């Protein structure tokens, strides 16, 4: 069933193989990384380039690691994710919120609260991505960056149907369409930051900035 806030996407675009509650799927912590060291380094470099040092940063769909550069100090890092044990173990988080965005896409933060945000290898699980990105445009300050990264790995049963039908270029275009449909975003960049080397996981990014 398509999500009403995510039109004009095709019917069934946001269905999953496993439609059981996400809270059940993420009930047990997974203290693993979902991309390899090369791809993680590429995520960290993007954060180094786009997220402002000293700023207030939102790590959306967070876990036990945030991949933020170790040498950069931020004023505050807030995580929002599904598993409290993972969030509690994350050393970069100043505070955290446990929330299922597929159930409640409204973010529990004030307008213009953050100077930047990241969504790391998780955008493919959102069933209401436009609603979430609309909320992100509200809680980020004008011109604040949002860095959305993804690879070719996922939990297949929880990734949306549209993600399964597309290749890497299609994933970039889909995330761009999410931002354009949500409104409030400009300077959207589609990036291939895949590490050199055949054995590394690929890494792609869509970066947008909140409009004034």
Between the first and last Cα atoms, what is the distance in angstroms? 34 Å
Q: What's the architecture, going by CATH?
A: 3-Layer(aba) Sandwich
Beta strand count = 7
Number of domains: 1
The major β-sheet equals: 7 strands, mixed
Q: What oligomeric state do these chains adopt?
A: single chain
Mean pLDDT: 92
- Helix fraction bin: 25-40%
Strand % is 15-25%
Task: Name the structural class.
Answer: alpha/beta
CATH superfamily: Vaccinia Virus protein VP39
What is the CATH topology classification name?
Rossmann fold
**H/E series:** HHEEHEEHEHHEE
Overall form: globular
Radius of gyration: 16 Å
Describe the protein.
- The protein has 212 residues and is of the alpha/beta class.
- The protein has one domain: Rossmann fold, CATH 3.40.50.
- The chain is built from six helices and seven strands; from the N terminus they run ααββαββαβααββ.
- Strand 4, helix 4 and strand 5 form a beta-alpha-beta unit.
- Helix 4 crosses helix 6.
- The termini are far apart.
Descriptive labels:
212 residues, alpha/beta, Rossmann fold, seven-stranded mixed sheet, 26% helix
């Amino acid at each position: 069933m398509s999500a009403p806030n995510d039109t004009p996407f095709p019917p069934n675009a946001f269905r999953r193989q496993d439609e059981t509650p996400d809270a059940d799927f993420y009930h047990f912590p997974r203290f693993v990384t979902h991309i390899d060291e090369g791809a993680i380094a590429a995520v960290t470099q993007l954060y180094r380039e786009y997220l402002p040092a000293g700023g207030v940063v939102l790590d959306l769909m967070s876990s036990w690691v945030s991949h933020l550069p170790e040498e950069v100090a931020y004023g505050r890092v807030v995580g929002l994710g599904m598993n409290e044990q993972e969030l509690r173990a994350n050393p970069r988080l100043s505070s955290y919120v446990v929330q299922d965005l597929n159930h409640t896409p409204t973010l529990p933060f004030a307008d213009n609260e953050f100077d930047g945000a990241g969504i790391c290898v998780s955008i493919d699980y959102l069933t209401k991505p436009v609603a979430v990105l609309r909320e992100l445009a509200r809680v980020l300050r004008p011109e604040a960056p949002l860095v959305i990264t993804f690879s070719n790995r996922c939990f297949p049963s929880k990734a949306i149907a549209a993600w399964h039908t597309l290749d890497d270029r299609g994933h970039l275009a889909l995330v761009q369409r999410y931002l354009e449909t949500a409104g409030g975003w400009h300077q959207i960049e589609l990036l291939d930051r895949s590490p050199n080397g055949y054995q590394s996981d690929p890494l792609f990014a869509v970066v947008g900035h909140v409009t004034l």
